[in-house]
Amino acid sequence: MISALTYGMALFLIALVSGNNLTACSGSIIAGRIVGKRAGILLTIAGYSLGFLLQGSLLSTGINAILPVRSDQSILLALSIATLIFLIAHRFRVPQSLSITLSMTALGISTALGLAVDWGFIAYMITFWIAAAFLCAIFAFATMRATRGFMSKVRIWKALSSVKMLLILISFFTAFTLGANTIGFLYVSLPGRVSEFMVIAAIIFGSFVFSAGEIKRVGSDILPLRYLNALVSQSISVLLVEAATLSSVPLSNTQTFIASLYGSAVSYRTRIIRKRPAETILFTWIVTSLVSFSAGFLLTKVLL
Fold first, then answer.
1. What is the DSSP letter of 56?
2. Residue 278: which of 193, 235, 218 has the closest Cα?
3. Residue 109 sits in which domain range?
4. CA 267 to CA 272: how far, in whole Å?
């Protein structure tokens, strides 16, 4: 009975993640009207699925370091907490990081159970989270300054056409890294294995059902997107998340994308940047990290 609930909760959370994080993948090309909403979602689904199938298992080292002993009860508790936080985030249309939520919940559970956590890896993981945000913003700022100088020397319409094609391509690779890192991390966290077909079915369902509010938040609430800064932001985000995947570190695509987006926006001296949505997202990430760890620790002490 517990196993069925655990796997059902995992598939539901995969669906939520697929919809909640779709903005970090196809939000730019949809908001920029390069492709339609349906085409953008289908492109993202393809990226999610291939990333999960080809690289999802690379996150095994990470979950073993955070939660070395996994039972049905501990995973069900971790998934329940993560699902509740995701539902709250979805209700308020705030993109939420599964990587942060599930990692910190699992760490709280491990601490409460007195498990042999790899604290060196934990320190490395948290450092990676913080450094990735700063590196994305810095690289995006520098790249935008250099790229705009190059763009001004080429034929504008030809350049824009190339940027649009590259943006579609990088949107796919953004989804690929999210499927490998975020969905892969959730998949390897399970004490047993569910069918890969069921995971892909959950990806498809969540991408269509749970993505509308989040597309609006990143696509238009933060700043009106330009093709070039969207391309730069997503490219840098992809590189950082792929590096994290190869290191078995769970990393939020949404976090890296938004950091890159702001870095590229700052490069425009006269660009109007809406700070409040990003401040809301940042505050949510910090609070949910603390809440996730505390909930995992306290509920483990009470229930397990």
1. G
2. 218
3. 2-303
4. 11
With 80 as the cut, is the pLDDT of residue 184 above it?
Answer: yes
If one counts the domains in the chain, the total is 1
Mean pLDDT of the chain: 83
- CB atoms < 10 A from the CB of 137, how many? 22
The one-letter code for the residue type at 290 is L
Segment 24-31 shows an average pLDDT of 79
Contacts of residue 145, Cβ cutoff 8 Å, sequence gap at least 6: 267
Question: Are the beta carbons of 122 and 128 closer than 8 angstroms?
Answer: no
The 3-state secondary structure of 59-122, one letter per residue:
HHHHHHHHCCCCCHHHHHHHHHHHHHHHHHHHHCCCCCCHHHHHHHHHHHHHHHHCCCCCHHHH
186 pLDDT band (50/70/90 cuts)? very high
Residue 116's pLDDT band, with cuts at 50, 70 and 90, is: very high
* Secondary structure (3-state) at 35: coil
Contact 187, 52 (CB under 8 A): yes
Say how many residues make up the chain.
Answer: 304
